[in-house]
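thought: user wants a sequence for this fold. calling inverse folding tool.
action: design(structure=
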């Protein structure tokens, strides 16, 4: 499963939370098994916010 990166600009907190949960589910499925036992990743270690000028996604609504 692959999740495409999205622009968070304009997302509501509930939309952002839902997207983060999707990402964690994919990480859990791909990297969460230890000794054959499933491991569910429930949260990120930290919150990182990039300056919009450093947005790596193109096309970007902030960089037309």
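)
observation: tool returned 64 residues.
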């Amino acid at each position: 499963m692959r999740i495409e990166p999205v622009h968070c600009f304009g997302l509501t907190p509930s939309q952002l939370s839902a997207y983060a949960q999707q990402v964690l589910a994919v990480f859990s499925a791909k990297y969460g098994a230890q000794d054959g036992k499933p491991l569910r990743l429930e949260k990120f270690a930290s919150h990182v916010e990039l300056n919009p000028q450093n947005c790596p996604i193109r096309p970007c609504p902030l960089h037309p």
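thought: summarizing for user.
answer: Here is the designed sequence. DSSP finds one helix and no strands in the chain.
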